[in-house]
Amino acid sequence: MRTIGLIGGMSWESTAVYYRRINEQVRERLGGLHSADVLMRSVDFDAIVALQRAGDWVQAAQVLADIGRGLEKAGADCLLICTNTMHKLADDVQRAVSVPLLHIVDATAAPLKEKRIARPLLLATRFTMEEEFYRARLRNRFGIEAIVPETSDERGMVHDVIFGELCCGVVKDSSREKYRAVMARGKAQGADAVIFGCTEIGLLVGQDDTDLPVFDSTFLHADAAVDFALAKSAALVA
């Protein structure tokens, strides 16, 4: 079994989901008392958010790259950044290490392609919805044209619920209803699926909250790590 390196804490609420999902999947696949071989570095999220708000992505990249190097030195055979937004810096982290960084967009796109999803609704932070790094990778590598909520107010609500509630462990029925409404409007826009493109969104809503197929990036990313850890060769990440 290969060792999985997790760059976590952004937020720790979703990193806990990663840890549980990875271990559940290893136990399911191997049985008995098996669990995953995991190294984790969990950051103080407030410091990362301060860099995001300041637009200091250079410093943020340095922080994540240093963590990645540390995990590699400690024995990690692959790395995961346990957040969608910080994949804005994925290339910087990959350049800093020699082990593969398993990209969350690639893990999410694989089942989308398999199900022939062409126009998913992307729900995420403003950074992920409004900047190009995420949607461009879906488009350029996989031919998937993700859409986002049409209005700035809708995108702001999705973002604010993530940072103001879910990252703080707060789950509100009123916010669930708002997300349900956004997903319904996404279907009216022509969406053929929903991507939970923030690792906390699954704490609030799930497949029962929409009649569109849901692709939860947290579970898909964690499962990709298990695939890598249990693979008999490095072919999966070639």
Describe this structure in words.
By secondary structure, this protein is mainly alpha-helical. It folds into two domains: 4-103 and 219-237, 3-Layer(aba) Sandwich (Rossmann fold); 105-217, Rossmann fold, CATH 3.40.50. It contains ten helices and six strands, in the order βαβααβααβααααββα. It has helices spanning 12-30, 45-54, 57-74, 90-96, 104-114, 126-130, 132-142, 152-164, 173-189, 217-230, and strands at 4-8, 38-42, 78-81, 120-123, 193-196, 214-216. The strands form two sheets. A three-stranded parallel beta sheet has the order 2-1-3, sandwiched between helices. Helix 1 links the parallel strand 1 and strand 2 (38-42).
Summarize the structure in short.
The protein is built from 10 helices and 6 strands, in the order E-H-E-H-H-E-H-H-E-H-H-H-H-E-E-H. It is mainly alpha-helical and 238 residues long. InterPro entries: Asp/Glu/hydantoin_racemase, Asp/Glu_race, Asp/Glu_racemase_AS_2, Asp_race.
String of helices and strands: EHEHHEHHEHHHHEEH
Q: Which quaternary structure do these chains form?
A: single chain
Helicity, as a percent range: 40-55%
CATH class of the largest domain: Alpha Beta
Poorly predicted parts: 233-238
Taken as a percent bin, the fraction of beta residues is 5-15%
Annotation, overall tally of beta strands = 6
So what's the overall shape? globular
Q: From the alpha-carbon coordinates, what is the Rg to the nearest angstrom?
A: 17 Å
Q: What fold name goes in the CATH topology slot of the largest domain?
A: Rossmann fold
Gap from first CA to last CA:
18 Å
CATH-scheme architecture of the largest domain: 3-Layer(aba) Sandwich
* Average pLDDT score: 96
Q: Treating each run of at least 4 consecutive H or I residues as one helix, how many helices?
A: 10
Class by SSE composition:
mainly alpha
Main sheet: strand order? 2-1-3
- Give the domain tally: 2
* Major sheet: 3 strands, parallel
